[in-house]
Amino acid sequence: PTFGFEGLKAIDETNGLAESVSDSEIKESMSLLHDNLNIGAEPGGAAGFAGFINIYRKKAKQFKGKKVVIIITGNNED
C-alpha cells in the first residue's frame, strides 16, 4: 500500500493491532454494514471492519470498556 510503512509505524507506536482478511470476510462485513447500519462501504473501506470482527471474535474481553474507531469509506448509492 501507498502508506504501508506509515501504517505499520502507527500500529507499533500505539500498541495497535493488524489483521489480514479474506475477500469473503470483506463481503460479509459489507453486507453487515449495509443491512444493519445502512452504510454502503466499498471493499477497501470495509476491510478494517472485517479485521475488527476477526479480532473481536478471538479477543472480545480485550475490548471491554474501550472505544474502537474503524474508518469505513464508500457511499450509500445502490
Verbal overview:
By secondary structure, this protein is mainly alpha-helical. The protein is built from 3 helices and no strands. It has helices spanning 4-13, 23-37, 43-59. Helix 2 packs across helix 3. The radius of gyration is 13 Å and the shape is globular. 13% of the residues are buried. The mean pLDDT is 88.
Task: Based on the model shown, name its key terms.
3 helices; globular; 78 residues; mainly alpha
Short description:
The chain has 78 residues and is mainly α. It has helices at residues 4-13, 23-37, 43-59.
Number of strands: 0
Number of helices: 3
Strand/helix succession = HHH
The amount of beta strand, in percent, is: under 5%
The SS-based structural class is mainly alpha
Major β-sheet profile? none
Q: Could you tell me how far the N terminus lies from the C terminus, measured between alpha carbons in angstroms?
A: 28 Å
Tell me the layout of helices and strands.
Layout: H1 4-13, H2 23-37, H3 43-59
